[in-house]
Amino acid sequence: MKRLFLFIVIIALSFTFFYNQNLLSIAAGVAIFLFGMKSLEEGFRFFVGGLLDKFLKKITDNLYKSILFGTVITTLMQSSGLAAVIAISFISAGLISVAQGVGIILGGNIGTTTGAWLIAGLGLKISIATYALPMLVFGMLFIFQESKRLKGIGYALAGLGFSFLGIAYMKEGFDAFKATIDLTQYSADGFTGIILFAIIGAVMTIVMQSSHASLVLILTALSASQITYENAIALTIGANIGTTITAVLGALGAGMEGKKLAAAHFLINTLTGLLLIGFVPQFIHFIDHTAPFFGIAEQDYTLKLALYHTYFNLFCVLLFAPLVHHLVRLLNYFFQPKITAENAIDDVLFINDAALDFPDTAQATLLKETKHLYNNVYDIIAQGLSVTKEDISSGMEIEDILKRRDQALHVNMDDYYERRIKEIYGKIITFAIVAQGKFSDVTTQQFIPIKNATIDIVEAFKAAKHMQKNMLRYLESDNEYIKNEYNHIRKTLIKHLRTMQMIFNTSEEDVAVLLLSKLQLDAQNYDIAANKSLDNLIRTNKITYTMATSLMNDTSYAYTIASELSKVAHTLFVHATSESTEGREALILNEAEISDLTHASSPRSTS
Amino acid sequence: MSGLKFIQKMQELFGLSPESAESTKKKAVKELVKKLKLRHILLKKELKNETDLIKREALHDSIKIIKKQMKKGKEIVDD
Fold first, then answer.
1. Which residues from chain A sit within 8 angstroms of residue B60, using beta carbons?
2. For A453-473, what is each residue's pLDDT tens digit?
3. Burial of A397 (0-12, 13-18, 19+ CB in 10 A)
4. A587 to chain B: nearest residue by CA?
């Protein structure tokens, strides 16, 4: 169906271009302008790695700062669409809240008005094509440079150059058009005309996916007197509604929070549009009164349209800024996350295509999803030890937990793996590999340890699975010695899991650094003590050979669980923020330093 | 002004001027050592009041680790 539509469009355009050269000039202008906007976006993407993350943290901690951020970034990039994509990506990765994202969208609406002023004030009044050509030359020169930043500048410059060239083509096309045909004869008056042109404006923007391109087209047509001022206003209202399609499309691959933001953008712009569509004549009157204050001549309709565009968006922000929190509540009501039933297949919570837009969001998403996987594995390891995760986080003395859970808990670990681990594990690895391929080498280095932590988590699960068989058998054994040994494994791992939870939950860096080293020390101490205890039991014939073999294997599995989980905690702590990972890592003791401590201390008795 | 310089100026303007990786690391370690010193004092006090043998042993281990970490941190900062 899509292909058929594309085929029809190509045939129709070819036919039109064959009969009308001016339309070709206008369409080429739009195409060049859109290409320029894409280049400009590409250029700014080179700068967002790391920098945008810091910027957002500093600037978007309250709603009004978010609005300011949206305004500035849209003014700089001349693309409200990209501001929306940034907001969706950061929300999807959980770096900012929906309310802050709405702030960025509102700011983007203000920022987009600067484009209208630039085009109406400069683009149509001076010959900008003369600036376009050198910009293209210098832009290409920078694009061929090695440095990523220079490349970014090159793309941005070439983007601006192409946009200017596109405007010049559109202007030329409309001016030539004027000599042969008068489009104003198709203008429609009254309320029906406003509705009709608003729909045209919305459709036009949806097709081009750029309100900027629509605005340029409207302004050039207006400056060539090919449309009436009233119809141009209606087209602008339509363009403001149509522009929300960029965010809607961007949110299709995003998570629930991203979808909320796209819905907010659609609601804000559509409601403002529907509200103001009924007051077009009154607004025209208002503009006629206020335009002289800005030095706009009575007949300068392009600047008057830019003023209308500004009023429209300011009205939109003034109307919705105080209502943002109510709007978020409404969206939370309509967009509720699906609750995974205990026996249902668990899926990823954070990974989505939108998170792959920027390196910071990709890293944050990878980290969160790995923690999600860890929580599932933590749950099943606890059950494999015949306790629950609630027991571990309860704060009860471990001895009391073991007394309370003295019966083996039969749980199907293979089934659990299929339902709650396999899918998430596969998606995390795929996401990490795609992200590694997409971003620069420097950023990729951040993804590798997190990906390895995911593998470590699954290794810990596998060790727990292998250990479970004997654990179930010997916890119900009549031989008190072997039962005690398995209870000792349980005790050690419960302590380990508890420390892991403390590391994940603490906000104090020094506590985490201390506990991470302690995890390793405990694992090594356990290994030494368990081996001594095993030797003693064999020597004194307190356990059978079969029991000894099982215990030997399971001691090794317990050590694997402890050491793999220690590595996971280490990685997730070190990479929790992008700032100073080396500083955080430096004081965590390495294996050799821990060995020094282990050998310095006197070995404990475990029997 | 080159593109890179322009970006650096902008970063300075917004308080985002990048420091060298080494000095950032040293700064972070220094801060962490300060916190560890305080934690060391707290743990020592805790040890004085603790009567349970197993808990005393755990506190001993923590103190040993912190001492080693403070020593390591000092070496990094002085380097």
1. 601
2. 999 999 999 999 999 999 999
3. exposed
4. B69
Residue ranges and CATH numbers for the domains of chain A are 19-334 (no CATH), 353-600 (1.20.58)
Q: Is the pLDDT of residue B62 over 50?
A: yes
Q: What phi, psi does A419 have (nearest 5°)?
A: -80, -40
B69 chain-A contacts, CB cut-off 8 A: 513-514, 517, 587, 589
Q: Which of A150, A582, A604 sits opposite B25 (nearest CB)?
A: A582
**Three-state secondary structure of A154-178:** HHHHHHHHHHHHHHHHHHHHHHHHH
Among A426, A453, A468, residue whose Cα is nearest residue A565: A453
Question: Under a CB-based contact definition with an 8 Å cutoff, are residues A575 and A446 in contact?
Answer: yes
Give the gap in angstroms from C-alpha B35 to the nearest C-alpha of chain A: 6
Is residue A309 within 8 A of residue A237, CB to CB? The reply is no
Closest of A231, A226, A222 to residue A184, by C-alpha: A226
End-to-end CA distance of chain B: 36
Give how far the C-alpha of residue A264 lies from the chain's centroid of Cα atoms, to the nearest Å. Answer: 17
Identify which of A58, A582, A587 has the shortest CB distance to residue B21: A582
Helix (H) or strand (E) holding A296: none
Q: Is A149 on the interface with B (CB under 8 A)?
A: yes
Ordered by start, the domain boundaries in chain B are: 20-78
Nearest residue to A119 via CA among A37, A55, A183: A37
Give the DSSP letter of residue A124.
T
A54 inside 8 A of chain B by CB:
yes
Indicate yes or no: CB of A54 within 8 angstroms of CB of B62: no
Scan for tokens 């077009």, then name that residue: A280
Q: Are the CB atoms for A366 and A451 separated by under 8 Å? A: yes
Structure token pair of residue A434: 């795609």
**Nearest-10 Cα torsion for A453, A459, A461, A466:** -170
Is B65 close to A589, i.e. CB distance below 8 A? yes
Those residues with Cβ within 8 angstroms of residue A201's Cβ, 6 or more apart along the chain or in another chain: A214, A218, A234, A235, A236, A237, A238, A239, A241, A242
Report CB contact under 8 Å: A47, B24: no
- B65 and A153: CB-CB below 8 Å? no
ipTM of model: 0.79
A 1-40 residues inside an 8 A Cβ radius of B: none
Cα distance between the two ends of chain A: 75
**CA-based Rg of chain B, rounded to a whole angstrom?**
20
pTM: 0.72
B10: contact with A, CB 8 A cutoff: no
Q: Name which of A236, A211, A172 is nearest A22 in CA terms.
A: A172
CB-CB neighbors (< 8 A) of A49 in chain B: none
Give the model confidence (pLDDT) of A210-245 as tens digits: 787 888 888 888 888 888 888 899 999 998 898 888
Determine the average pLDDT of the residues in B57-69: 91
Please, which residues have CB within 8 angstroms of residue A186's CB and are 6 or more apart in sequence? none
Residue A72 has pLDDT above 50, yes or no: yes
At which residue do the structure tokens 């929070």 appear?
A: A257
User: How many whole angstroms separate alpha carbon A538 and alpha carbon A485?
Assistant: 12
Angle at A408 between CA A486 and CA A528, to 5 degrees: 15
Please tell me if residue A504 touches chain B, with a CB cutoff of 8 Å.
no
Buried b (16+ CB within 10 A) or exposed e, A179-197: eeeebeeebbeeeebbebb
CA distance A558 to A402: 17
State whether residue B65 sits within 8 Å of chain A by CB: yes
